[in-house]
Design a protein that fits this description.
By secondary structure, the protein is α/β, with parallel strands linked by helices. It has 15 helices and five strands. It has a five-stranded mixed β-sheet with strand order 3-2-1-4-5. The longest helix is centred in the C-terminal third of the chain and has 24 residues.
Amino acid sequence: MIVFQSHHMSQNHSISPVAKRKKTLQHPKTTIDKFVIRTSRLQKEVIDEKTARFVYVTNSPFCMIENPHFINMVQSLRPGYSPPNRADVAGKLLDKVYERDIEQCAKDLDGEIVNLSLDGWSNNHNDPVVCACVTTEEGNIFLTETTDTSGNAHTAEYLQEVAVKAITNCEKNFKCLLCSVVTDNVANVSKMRRNYLEESPKLITYGCSAHLMHLLAKDFSVSEITANVAEIEKYFHNNHFAAAVLKKVGGTKLTLPQDVRWNSVVDCFEHYIKTWPNLLTVCEQNRKEIDGTVSTKVLNIGLKRNVEHVLSTLKPISVPLNKMQGNSCFIADTVEI
């Protein structure tokens, strides 16, 4: 009797093989999260910052962020995410990216020996700006400060104030050791360097070697010849018929000289000499359609000879100038050149 009950109880409490197999085949608990892409608040902040940085780095207009095609593209990559609006890109996100980059610059420049370069130009609104950049021994370049100089005469004394402020802020904010300062070679800036050297003789100050070569080339240039060639090239650049016919006869696109682009006069003259036979053909075959003044200058063999002569003088200067403008050129290379 006892044996029967024991056997009966063991049968009731044992798990059958089928039940065991069903238990092992049960799927783990699933949620809807596996089928929906969620963007948390923290994730949105990270993506917003990266999206804004893309706009800044590519120099894109802020309105692009609200373009329907841009929004569709972003939401195709991550459904449910909405990019920031242009007000955020122009405001809080710009401040956030700027502060983060300043922090990164401070980390990278901490304890580094650097050279400070000061240069001025005008922005798109024609506002005068002086920028300060530092270069490390490894050749890494960091923009450390920009100064709006509107309403101030660019005297040597004022520029010295700007330079002192840039040097002080650089050493204070980025904890780097500044050993030298380089500027261009215009008269007021050269005087500023001399004045600063008298007050701080330990700091090395010098003029940009590439700018010196540019000024030398400018002294050898003949403005009248450059103006004549520029007039020809502007005509064939702006006149649709002339540009089309020049292209048809195998002529290449001409290059206009620009004051802010060093060596552009040499490039302009080289393209003119190379394309001159094609220009001559166009003027001879289309006398009625081509402007008479331009045609006369193209046919002027004396102008061509003068261009070749000036080019032979400027070419030896342009070669070292291009090397000095390279990203990997050092002072030792300049001396060797």
